[in-house]
Structures are given as C-alpha cells and as structure tokens.
Sequence to fold (738 residues):
Amino acid sequence: MTTYKRVNQFTKVENRIVANRRCVFTAVSYLAVAILSVNTAFVRSVILGATASLIFFVINALFLAHALFRKEDDFFRLMFGVLLLIMLLGFVGWLIMIVYNLDALRFTLTLVIVASLSSSANIRTKYKNAT
Amino acid sequence: MSEIIYMCLTALSFYLLIMSRTGEARTVWQVLHPAFIPVLFVATFFLLAIMFSSEKTTNKMLFIIVYSIFIHSFFPIVFPAGDNSGQQMILGQIRRVFDNTIIHGLSGWPSQSLQIFLVEMFDGINLQAALSVIFARMLNVDIFYVHLFFVPVLWGVFIPIASFLTTKTLGGGEKASVLSSLLVSAFPYATYFGAISVPNSLGFIFFFYSLCFMLKYLASNDSKTAYLMVAFSLFSFLSHYLTGIMSFSFIFLAVVFKAYESEKRSPCVIPRASLIVSFFLCLSLLPMSFIYLRFVGSITPVFTIAKFQELPAEEIAGLLLVGELIYGFDLQTMLLVVIGPALGLLWMICLLYKLEKKPTAKFSTPILFLFAAFMVVLIDYRVLKLLMEGLPLNEERLWVFRDFIAVPFVALAICSAVSSVNKFLKARHPSAMFLTRLRNLSKRNVLYVLALLLTLNVLIPTVLAGWVTYSLRAAYPRIAPLQTTWYELEAVRHIEENTEEKYVVIGDVWTIFAGEVIVGIKNPRAYYFGEFNKTGYDLFLNMTQDPSPQWMLHAMNYTDTTTAYFIITEPRVGTEEYNRIVTEAGTRLPIYDVFGEGKLHIFYYTK
Fold:
C-alpha cells in the first residue's frame, strides 16, 4: 500500500512537472542554473551545488523522458531521461569546449542550452499530443 | 525480511571496505578486511533471494544498482588515488580543462594539421573531460573526486538497466531480466572496465545501450528507436573509437538483418547471400579501421603472419582457443573469464536450434543477430591477436563486447533451468508444493522432493552468489605495482600549497602519476612532465646518477619556471639506491621536506 502510494505520488509529481503550466518548471530549471552559476563563481558550497543539480536533473530528465520514452515504465523512463540528459550535457559541453573552453561562464552557457533543449522537447511533445 | 538483511549486509560490506582503505598497497586483495568477501557473499545470496521473490521490479533494480555501484568502487574507496593506471593519466589531462589552462579541447589548437585536429577532436577523452568538468562544477567539488567515481557510478547505474532491457527485448521474463542485470557483474573484464574511469569504459556504457536499441529496432518499426540506436552509437564513438566502430558495424548488421527479416520467405537466394556478405563486411570493419589509423597518427598497425611463423603450434592453438589467458593466468581465473561467455554461447546455439524448427518465432531475428554479433567479436579478437601488429590497444578489450552479448543468454539459461526443475517438481509431485502433504509420499520420494527443493532454493542461489562474488577475484588484479601512496600525494599537495612561484618537479613516473591527479599534467604553473616524456625521464635519470643543481636548472630553463623540486621515493627505487641518492643529493641540494616517515625526500633549487 505504501509502495503504491509512493509510486502514485511519483507519477503525480512527474505529471505536474511535464505539464509545465505557464512554463513554471522551465523557470525553476533556469533558476537552478542561475544558482549553480553563482555557486561556482562565488559561494562554492557543495550542499547548494548538489541541491541545485538535483533539481536541474529531475526537471530536465523528466522533460526528456516525457518527450522520448513515454511508453516505458516509470522507473525506466526516469533512468532513460537521466541518461539522455547526461548525453546532452556531454555533447553540448564537448562542442563548447572544442569551440573555446569550459570555464565558469561557458559552463553556465552549457546548462542554459541543455535546459532550453529539454524544455522545448517537452513543450513540442505536449503540443503534438494535444493536437 | 530479506530486503532488510540485504541492506544491513551491504552496509556492513561498505563499512568493511572503508576499513580496508590504505595509503600504501599494491592490490585491493592485500588490504581487504578478512570478513569482507564472506559478508559480500551472504549479501549477494540475499540479493538473489530478493530477485527470485515477488518484490517489485523497481525495488529489485534499485537493490542491484546499489550493489553494482558498490562492487565497481573498490579502487577509489580502497586506494587514495584510485587504480594506478590509465585513469590517472586521463585525470591529469582532464584537469587542464578544469583549470582552464587549455583551449579547444585536449587536442589543442593549432594542431599539427587540420586533419589531425579533426581526428583528435573526436578522441574520447574530450567527451569525458566535458562531462567530468560539468559535474565537478555542478557539485562544486574537485575534479579528482568526480573523476574517480564517475565511471563506477555511471556503470553501476546504467549497465544493469541496459542488461535488463536487452534480456527483456529477447523475450526474457521479469526474473530472467533482473537476473541478467546482476549477472553482468559476474564477468570479470566487464567489472574491471566498470571500475576505472577511462573513455573506453564510458564508450562501453553507450555501446550496450546502442545494442539494446538495435534489438528494439529489429523488433519494431518505430523510427524513434532507429534514431536512438544511432544516437547511442554516435556517443559510443565520441567516447572511444573502439566502441564506436563496434557500434556502427553492429548497426550495419542490424539494418541488414531487418531487411532480411522482410525478405527471408522469398525463394530467392539473394537475401541470404547478402546477409553472409554483410557479415564478412562487418567482420572486416574493426581490423580495417586500425589500418586507416596509419593515415592520421603515428601508430602503424599492420596485418602480418609473423606470429604464425614465430610462435610454437601449441601457443597458437592456445591463443585461438582462450586468447591472452594462456599467459600465466591460473586455472581459476581462466575459468571465471571463460565460463560466462561459454554458457551464453551454448544457450544461444540451443535457442537457435529450437528456432530452426519454428522459424517464424517472434524473437528469432534478434537472437540470430546477437549470435552473428557474438561471432564477429570472437573472430575479430583472433584476427587482432594473431594477424595484426602495432595496435594502439590490447585486444582483450573486445571481451567486454562479448560479455555484454553473453549476459542475457546466461540469465535466460539459468532461468530456464530453474523453471524446468520447478515444472518437473510440480508435474511429478504436486504435493511437494505443500510441505504438510509430504508425509503422504514414500520416504524415497520425500528425499527426492527435498533434494529438488534444496537445489531450487539453496543450491542455485548459493552457486550464483558464489560465482558473482568469486569473479571479483579475476576482475580486480592480484599482481600490480605499488599504487600511488599517501605520502606521494601529500608531497605533491604540500609543494602545491606552499609554492607561490612557477615550479617544475623532477620525479619518476609514479611521482608524475601523483602530480597528475593533484595538479594535472603540463600545468605551466606547476609543471610535471608527461609519463612518456623523454626529457622528463632523462632528467630524472640524470638526477639519480648525479643529483646536482645543473639538471634542476636545465629543467627550470626548459619549462620557464623559477623553482625546481626533485622527489625520490624509497619503495620505487629500492632502499640501497634510495639511501645513496638521498646522501649524495643531501650534500649538494637543500632538503625541502620529508614524508612517509623518511620514505620520500623532496629536494629543491631556485634560480
């Protein structure tokens, strides 16, 4: 019963995030990027970094999972989303590093691009499903 | 109940591993707590009990992921700087990106030529550097910690999932799929590559997912699956060219199998012929790709029959049969490396034989495809081993591909055996399902039923737990040089923290490894020569023979620095030689500091 409730709770949270009404979660994702950026440059706190990273990962992984793996089970969908997000971070980071380097500024740029791509993939899927 | 016991035992194993952490050892086996392996064995037994229970799949997978991360993290947990291997060299390079001392990636611009720059751009270390640096900046920790745990964690999380999905795509039930996600840890080479943070390991992870999506592609007509299959292969290529080339050659094979699937019923011989031609083409892709490396780098792999002419017939036969294992590996290690793939191959053949009678069966094409892929790996390994020379990597890396393909079949075989015993028991002695009814049976039958029940519930989990635990013996090396010691790391850290001007360090390759993990390689402010740098090697040799300031001045002029340090360590050069060098150097150079209770001396000289 407890497990069922937990799963149900996860689905509720997931649905709320991927519904992304008024792009609230996209904004939260950008806020997480801003916190990560400020943390890297000034605050330098591991706890703050880990918390903002977790928020960034959960939101964007669910966006990507919703866009590409809707038919998979909850757990595998989330894991695929995380893997895809890692791939996207790696690819964008790799490109930016080849173009110039990955200092604090370009690290922020990488996160912004990844957050924008994930969010737009989610929005695109949402509208595709609606029509 | 099993879940709680498993979690307690895993926590205890983790505690024992932490207790085994040391600053001076050669192998993990030297320092592991004596109770560690028995506790891990019991934990594995309970994990297997959970897997065969009715627990939710998600929970089972979470337990396996925890276990998988744990058994792939021995190096970073036990040693102060992880395994003394390529991963330290990689960290030394990646640190240059982290410290912003290099632009345009690790290939660097301007390169010798545009062609070389383009090729080096796709070197796997660039992708790993980008990922490690991003994670280090996100978590705001030093790249050292991110790098050491990067692959063990990614491998521990994603490889069991890939194994689960692959088995599921082959028609395996939930139990077989979950079992395969654990059994992937019973393959020593796969475990070793999951324990070291090198680009090749990252490539193996993406390769396994591309293989998984190839099977999905064969089973469906969804275009998204095809895109994902290509995307994972592309990432596999960006991580390492070996995994990338294998991924793309298997994609080629998958596309041909897909085409064959739609045409196989036609009486025409062309589909079958094209399948055979494509198989040979796929087979040739990896060896030929090594030949093409000659045009872009300094390495010159060639085809040769020299080994057939030079080696005795029995050695060639041994290499053909078990490969590298004939050279000094004990029988147990050989068995542990070979048993999984052999079992997988046998079950593949068995399934193909069954499918021969039922060619329209749902999973015939994926199984046939995996059999062909397995054959490609087996043949390619022997081609690289016996017919090629000058390769930039050891051929045994191909065994990880072989293991990934074999794992689902091993799990399917075991589950099939378990279900056969179960069915047999139910059919012959339905009363055995209720222990209270056993008294209705004769004494002989009771013993028979109990023996079968014991096999099902105790013997099989015990053997599997023993296999998974014991395979760690072959996964983690039993012979190794002294790992980077705590006092080598302390010395490097001490110099870095207390030197404000630009400096250069002259030391042996082990000192360079320690320097790489703390300050990186060729750092203009804190210069350590590369491990293959001839100037650095010559300077160290000269310092050991004639420890005088002239070599240190030479090093400073060469690297445009103002302070030079010379590090000498007792276990690396031997006590007698160490005492001689320290005595001679002490008369001409000031001592900077001493570490490791006199085992390491630092001398310095400033301009």
